[in-house]
Specification:
Elements lengths: L9 H21 L4 H16 L7 H5 L3 H24 L5 H8 L2 H13 L5 H22 L3 H27 L5 H23 L8 H24 L6 H5 L4 H14 L5 H24 L12
Length: about 300
């Protein structure tokens, strides 16, 4: 496949994207609002930013079948669950622990694809997966030594990672029938409604937040989404999906550095060991997938 060259060096754009998505967990930590409110407004504001560019996809919208709508809503529910659990995890554990666990998303997707669609995986990829999972165990072990709340945060992050994996597997089946932009927009809006219903049932106020919180909600929509995930999708016209997907290794590193500089968070020896194992395992997993010729394509509404 021939790709046109970028007027801006691709490594510079990738670095911008990595820094942007790394700020996601920092903004969440800075906010005092409930995770369900943060998630609702992040998705709502992102949807509003996307709507002006959705008109070319109106034809595809009316061509959707009832089954497609059911799958889209299910995907939205899982995306909302992902944000609820992952954002909630940051109330209890460190940015580094939470984002390292979230980086295991491709592994969860691989496991889901095996059990749901009987997709086979190379032995080298399984080895990488095993190393990454061992790393998560080390992170959890290290967090136990800090407090029970840290371990609770790790468990929430694992749940959030599993939820986003299911969301991505649903999307894999639906996106073949519609443009990915339209898929993302509908899922974002669906997840926003799920959050609205959740907040209503739980009695969580919708509007009683200071201006600083509203600024953080908007930053969550703009920085990690527009300058992160949307930028990565745009880069697919210049580089392969595998190259772009390797940025998943950059987010935990970037987020950990930012958490150290902006939040004063530090890691224990066990957490550093676990983080290194996660990164090495994921690198091996993604490299094995590349050799097999199956790219891991980034999706606009990916995780963080």
């Amino acid at each position: 496949m021939n790709r046109k060259p970028s007027t801006i060096p691709v490594p510079v754009l990738m670095m911008i994207g990595i820094v942007a998505i790394s700020f996601s967990s920092i903004f969440i930590k800075w906010s005092a609002a409930p995770a369900s409110i943060q998630g609702m407004y992040r998705l709502l504001f992102t949807s509003l930013l996307m709507l002006p560019f959705a008109r070319p996809y109106s034809g595809a919208l009316f061509a959707l079948r009832k089954k497609d709508w059911i799958m889209l809503i299910a995907s939205g529910i899982m995306l909302a669950l992902h944000f609820l659990l992952w954002m909630g995890s940051l109330k209890f554990t460190s940015v580094a622990s939470s984002t390292m666990i979230m980086a295991l998303e491709p592994v969860f997707i691989m496991l889901g694809a095996y059990f749901l669609f009987k997709e086979k995986t190379a032995v080298s990829a399984l080895l990488g997966m095993g190393i990454a999972i061992a790393g998560v165990i080390f992170i959890g072990w290290g967090d136990i030594g800090i407090s029970a709340n840290n371990l609770k945060g790790d468990i929430l992050s694992i749940g959030g990672t599993a939820a986003v994996a299911v969301h991505m597997l649903i999307g894999q089946k639906v996106v073949v029938r519609m443009p990915s932009y339209l898929y993302s927009l509908i899922v974002f809006i669906s997840a926003s409604f799920v959050f609205a219903i959740y907040n209503l049932l739980m009695g969580i106020p919708f509007f009683d937040y200071p201006p600083r919180e509203w600024g953080i909600f908007m930053l969550l929509a703009v920085v990690p989404t527009v300058f992160g995930h949307i930028l990565f999708n745009w880069l697919l016209q210049f580089v392969s999906a595998t190259t772009v997907s390797m940025n998943i290794l950059g987010e935990p590193v970037g987020a950990s550095i930012l958490a150290y500089l902006l939040l004063g968070e530090q890691l224990t020896g066990l957490q550093w060991t676990g983080s290194l194992l996660v990164m090495c395992g994921l690198a091996a997993y993604l490299y094995a997938g590349r050799k097999k010729g199956k790219d891991i394509a980034p999706v606009l509404d990916n995780a963080s």
